């Protein structure tokens, strides 16, 4: 079982930038465009296999003794590990009850050494960039193009333009 809770990170593309790109001059479509920016960013992160903006996470893993890889990348820090009780409450684990590792590929790894619980809650931070200016421009342009596509085709199911994936492909992390 692997559940992930995360806070929304800063938007990769500013709302004003998205409005200008889709040529919307009034504020009537702001909520729609903000949702489309979040959706396009999420699609981009799934395609790339990496979180674009740094943000907090909390994930639930089984309390196994083997190394387990956290589902998000790149992991910047693992701040807390707690045993998850059957009533839903959690109890922080002592330092000798688990081990963590952050490898050069940005993977966060954890293993439990002596835990009475069947599940653990792991929290920390993950994401590649601290600000939207640190996100590579081709990635941001792909998000903008996908926002424009989703805005123009909100009533249909037209496929996204190939230019979007062409912009993202060089930044995609391939996992075997």
The count of β-strands is: 8
Low-confidence stretches: none
In which range does the helix fraction lie? Answer: 25-40%
| Number of discrete helical segments | 4
Shape: elongated
Mean pLDDT: 89
Q: What class, by secondary structure content? A: alpha+beta
Q: Could you tell me how far the N terminus lies from the C terminus, measured between alpha carbons in angstroms?
A: 21 Å
Strand content: 25-35%
Radius of gyration: 19 Å
Major β-sheet annotation: 5 strands, antiparallel
The side-by-side strand order for the widest beta sheet comes to 1-2-8-4-5
Helix and strand element order: EHHEEEEEEEHH
Care to describe what's here?
- The chain is of the alpha+beta class and 176 residues long.
- The chain has 4 helices and 8 strands; from the N terminus they run βααβββββββαα.
- The protein has helices spanning 15-22, 30-48, 137-152, 162-168; strands at residues 3-6, 55-62, 68-69, 75-84, 90-92, 98-102, 108-112, 119-126.
- The strands form 2 sheets. The protein has a 5-stranded antiparallel sheet with strand order 1-2-8-4-5, with no helix packed on it. It has a 3-stranded antiparallel sheet with strand order 3-7-6, with no helix packed on it.
- A hairpin with a 5-residue loop joins β6 (98-102) and β7.
- α1 (15-22) packs across α3, α2 packs across α3 (137-152) and α3 runs antiparallel to α4 (162-168).
- The longest helix has 19 residues, at 30-48.
- The protein is elongated and about 60 Å long.
């Amino acid at each position: 079982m692997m559940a992930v809770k995360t806070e929304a990170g800063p938007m990769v593309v500013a709302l004003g930038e998205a409005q200008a790109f889709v040529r919307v001059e009034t504020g009537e479509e702001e909520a729609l465009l903000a949702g489309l920016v979040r959706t396009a960013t999420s699609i981009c992160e799934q395609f790339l296999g990496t979180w674009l903006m740094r943000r907090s996470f909390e994930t639930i893993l089984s309390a196994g003794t083997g190394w387990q890889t956290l589902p998000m990348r790149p992991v910047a820090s693992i701040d807390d590990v707690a045993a998850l009780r059957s009533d839903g409450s959690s109890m922080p684990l002592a330092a000798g009850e688990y081990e963590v590792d952050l490898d050069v590929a940005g993977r966060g790894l954890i293993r439990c050494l002596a835990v009475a619980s069947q599940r653990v809650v792991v929290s920390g931070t993950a994401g590649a960039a601290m600000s939207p200016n640190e996100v590579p421009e081709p990635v941001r342009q792909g998000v903008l193009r996908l926002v424009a596509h989703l805005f123009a085709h909100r009533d249909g199911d037209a496929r996204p333009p190939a230019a979007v994936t062409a912009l993202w492909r060089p930044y995609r992390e391939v996992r075997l």
